[in-house]
């Protein structure tokens, strides 16, 4: 990034040279590829959940699945995982599309909007990571205390 001060520019303005704009454009392209792959993976996770649901309903597995309580729960879990993976992919896609448009048009407002969308992605990821860490800690405590199931 190159900061430049001329007589008719504000010291708070930021100017990007061609190589940095190219790097932002390349980053946005790879972000879009990663987002599309994330959408595809979310779809595969959901399809796998449907497959597991059908497999657990097959003869011979039906009794075992009912004993463990997996018959209806499997689709819910896979659906939840697919949904959780879908949102970061969506936020990444929004960032990439906005960044590509901003760089192509050389629009400071659109690049700023893209950075804002990247910030939303990072916030989502931090929240999800903290939730998973809390769940992991709870499971470790349950494991350490020997609690295997909640009795209501």
From TrEMBL:
Keywords: Membrane, Transmembrane, Transmembrane helix. The chain crosses the membrane at residues 33-56, 76-99, 120-144. It comes from the Bacteria. The keyword Membrane applies. This is Uncharacterized protein.
